[in-house]
Structures are given as structure tokens and as C-alpha cells.
Amino acid sequence: MIRTILTVLAMAGATLAQAQGTQVAFGTVQQDTSLPVEVSADTLSVSQNDGSALFTGNVIIGQGEMRLSAPRVLVFYTENQSGVERLEATGGVTLVNGEQAAEADTAEYEVNRGTIRMVGNVLLTQGANTLVSDSMDVDLEAGTALMNGRVRTVFQSGDN
Q1: Cα 118–Cα 124–Cα 128 angle in degrees, nearest 5
Q2: What is 45-82 written as a DSSP string?
Q3: Which of 28, 30, 79, 142 is least crowded, fewest Cβ atoms below 10 Å from its Cβ?
Q4: CB-based contacts of 87, cutoff 8 Å, min separation 6
Q5: Which residue would you say has higher pLDDT here, 142 or 12?
Q6: 123: how many CB neighbours lie within 10 A of its CB?
Q7: Nearest Cα to Cα of residue 50 among 29, 78, 22
């Protein structure tokens, strides 16, 4: 009986989530977005024309506890070239913050704003629970994420 009630509540919550988006915690600690951004990759190509750099092959980006990996990351520097403005990761992206992880087709990290937008086949894993959506907006400083577009989830009961 209790399991049936939990299933109905989870379905009702998922239906509501589909209409309005779902706010979830993301990361075990708040991210300090003022920390340096470290990038490693197999190759680097720099364009002086538009102030960008293209990292390809096993790209790993680190900032504090956060790690983002992808096959291809395009980095746009600030106008005066003093720092990173934003990163565009493509080709299948994995974002890890603390013990939580998310995957998506693409991601855009607005460094100064401390936000990451993940788009396409988003899968968020939080322990034994998973959430799936079309997109996810992460606020690194607040340690939260908003999942949008056809949000689906499976909650594990305490019995499992």
C-alpha cells in the first residue's frame, strides 16, 4: 500500500515537474566561481581573430571541486583577454560536482555568472536516484539545478 502511494506521488510529482521544471540540489558544496579554470586536452588551436581557443581530445576542465569533460571545448576569452568568459562543450559532456554527476549532449559554462546550461538528453545522477530532462540550468554558487522539458525521475524507496 505504501509503495503504491509513493509511486502515485512520484508520478504526480513527475507530471508537475514536466509542466514547471524541477529544482534540485547539485553538488555537495557551493562552487567558488572565482577559482582559476584549469584545462587539459590533446590539442589546442588559438584564434587571435575572435579571441577563442579550441581544445579537442579528452578535454578536462577543472575549477575547485567541479570537473567537466568533453571531446571538444571552445573557450571564449574576455574582451581584454584577461580571463575566460564562457566555455562551449560539445560531443557528449560529463559534469561532476562532489558526488553528483550529469551528462548531456552539450554544455555552456558562463564563468562570470557561475552558470552551466546543459542541453540534450540530460541525465543527472544523485546517489541511487536519477533524473532525465531535455535541459538543465546549474547555478554553481547556489548549488542548485533547474531541470526543464519532459522531466522524468525514478525514486528509490528506503526498502531497496
Answers
A1: 175
A2: EEETTTTEEEEEEEEEEEETTEEEEEEEEEEEE-TTSS
A3: 79
A4: 37, 61, 68, 73, 74, 75, 76, 107, 108, 109, 111
A5: 142
A6: 15
A7: 78
